[in-house]
Input
Amino acid sequence: MTKGAPESDDQRRSQLLRGVLDLCLLSLISSRPRYGYEFVEALADSGLELVSEGSIYPLLARMERARLISSYRAPSSSGGAPRKYYRLTEAGRAELTSGQAVWRAFTGQVDRILTDTDTDTDT
Output
């Protein structure tokens, strides 16, 4: 592996995030119903500013088709058009719990490899 330039670091982060973005969204919804742009803001506030609305909406639609989340419309607090809010279903809550367990086990295994392996490439 070569020393990464900033753009390759962003690519790696983007690839890693792509695999767990659904779990991030489910986790955000578990605390309260949210509308689309709130996901982008919450992810950016957590340091995941690489995620755009264009990534969020197709994933929300897939999760809704899979019945992991449901949606409803509610008036906008700013007086604009009604917003589509998403909330977790029981199936979504079960998926989140399962996904969190898989994530913790996986990241623990990767962390062991990354911290236990000698990273000195000059030998």
User: Anything to note?
Assistant: DSSP finds four helices and three strands in the chain. Helices lie at 6-31, 36-45, 53-65, 90-116.
